[in-house]
Design brief:
The chain is an alpha/beta fold. The chain is 29% helix and 26% strand. Strands 1, 2, 3, 4, 5, 6 and 19 form a 7-stranded mixed sheet that branches. A 5-stranded parallel sheet has the order 8-15-9-10-11. It has a 3-stranded antiparallel sheet with strand order 12-13-14, with no helix packed on it. The longest helix is centred in the N-terminal third of the chain and has 25 residues, at 84-108.
Length: 346
C-alpha cells in the first residue's frame, strides 16, 4: 500500500488529472492519483475524443472504399459493408495502447495510482499534516490519505433532460454509442453539439438511417452561423435528416426500439421511431459522492467554483477541467484546456 502522506493528491486521471500528476512529479513532488476506473485517461481516452476519432477513421475508410472508382482503385464486385466487431476490436486496441502509455508514464515518474473512489474530508475535520488536506478512499482499498495540496479533476459525464430516462440499451449516451457491437438500422440523436454531429456522421456512413434533433434554430448552435450552414448542406448531401427548432417531448423505450414524440417549430407533434435514441444534450460535472460542499467547496449549478489560479473556496484544494466553473461564463469542456490547467496548477 502507498504511504499515506504526499505533496499532492489528485482525484481523477483524465487529461487534467494525469497531466497535472506527471508535471508535479517532474517538479520533484511526491504525487498520488485516485482513479476508480480500470484504466487511466478519463473520458477523452476511454469514452470521448480518442474512440470517436477511431470510429470516424473507420467511417472515412468505408467512404473511400465505396468511392474506389473515383480514386482509380478496382475492387471485387459487391457492396462494401462495415464489420462492427472488427471496428470495436481496433478501436479498443487504440484506446488500450494510449491508456497503457499513461500507466508507463506513472511508473516512470514514480506516481502512485490508488484505485478507488475518493471523498474529501469534511471541513473542520483537519489533517495530521499541518496546513494540508485529507481524503478518504471509500471503496476498493479503503484508507485515509493526506497531502499538502489536493487537486480535484473528476471531469464530466453525459447528462439527460427531464422526462427522458436513459436505459443504456435503446436510449443511450455517447458512452454506449462508442461501443455498439451491431449497427442500428435507425438512429435518432438529441442534440447537435460536437458529440451529436460526430455520431451522426459516423453512423450514417456506416449505413444507419440518421435523424438529428436540435432544440435551437440551427445545427452546432454555439459555432459561427457559416459553420452551421455548411454542416447543414453536408448533412443533406449525406442523407442525414436534421430537425432544428424542435423539442423532444417524450421518448419511450420498448423491446424493439424507441418511440419518440417531438414538437416542431409550428407547434405540431411529430412522431418518430428508431432502434436507438442517442441523448447528446451536454455534460454535467462529476461531484456526486465527492463531499464537495461538506469540505467547504462552493458549487455553482453543480460545478466547483474556482478563482483565476484554480483555487477553490477551501484551503489547500484546487480544481481543474470539466468539473469547474470560473464564474460569469462558460468553461470549455475540452481535453487540452484541462491539461493546460493541470500544468498551471502543478
Amino acid at each position: 500500500m502507498p504511504e499515506a502522506n504526499f505533496d499532492i493528491l489528485i482525484i481523477g486521471a483524465g487529461p487534467g488529472g494525469y497531466v497535472a500528476a506527471i508535471r508535479a512529479a517532474q517538479l520533484g513532488l511526491k504525487v498520488a492519483v485516485v482513479e476508480k476506473q480500470k484504466a487511466l485517461g478519463g473520458t477523452c481516452l476511454i469514452w470521448g475524443c480518442i474512440p470517436t476519432k477511431a470510429l470516424l477513421e473507420h467511417a472515412h475508410a468505408l467512404k473511400v472504399i465505396r468511392d474506389a472508382k473515383e480514386w482509380g482503385v478496382t475492387i471485387p464486385a459487391g457492396t462494401p459493408a462495415i464489420d462492427m466487431g472488427q471496428v470495436q476490436t481496433r478501436k479498443d486496441r487504440v484506446v488500450t495502447g494510449l491508456t497503457k502509455g499513461i500507466e508507463f508514464l506513472f511508473k516512470k515518474n514514480k506516481i502512485d495510482w490508488i484505485k478507488g473512489t475518493a471523498r474529501l474530508a469534511p471541513r473542520g475535520s483537519g489533517a495530521r499534516t499541518e496546513g494540508g488536506a485529507r481524503i478518504d478512499i471509500v471503496d476498493g482499498d479503503k484508507q485515509t490519505l493526506e497531502a499538502r495540496e489536493i487537486i480535484v479533476a473528476t471531469g464530466s459525464t453525459a447528462r439527460s433532460v427531464p422526462g427522458i430516462e436513459i436505459d443504456h440499451t435503446h436510449i443511450i449516451t455517447s458512452d454506449e454509442a462508442i461501443g455498439l457491437k451491431t449497427l442500428p438500422t435507425s438512429l435518432v440523436i438529441m442534440g447537435s453539439g460536437a458529440v451529436g454531429v460526430e455520431f451522426a456522421s459516423i453512423y450514417r456512413r456506416f449505413g444507419s438511417d440518421v435523424t438529428i434533433i436540435e432544440l435551437l434554430p440551427r445545427l452546432v448552435p454555439i459555432e459561427d452561423e457559416a459553420v452551421s450552414a455548411e454542416l447543414d448542406k453536408s448533412f443533406k448531401k449525406q442523407g442525414i435528416k436534421a430537425l432544428t427548432g424542435t423539442k423532444v417531448t417524450r421518448a419511450v423505450a420498448g423491446t424493439n426500439g424507441v418511440d419518440i414524440e417531438a414538437q416542431t417549430p409550428d407547434g405540431k407533434t411529430q412522431r418518430l421511431s428508431a432502434d436507438i435514441l442517442l441523448v447528446a444534450t451536454g455534460r454535467g460535472a462529476v461531484t456526486a459522492g465527492l463531499g464537495a460542499e461538506e469540505a467547504g467547496l462552493t458549487l455553482e449549478k453543480g460545478y466547483i467554483k474556482v478563482d483565476e489560479m484554480y483555487r477553490t473556496s477551501a484551503p489547500n484544494i484546487s480544481a481543474v477541467g470539466d468539473v469547474i466553473t470560473l464564474g460569469g461564463g462558460g468553461h470549455p469542456q475540452l481535453a487540452h484546456v484541462s491539461s493546460a490547467e493541470g500544468i498551471l496548477v502543478a
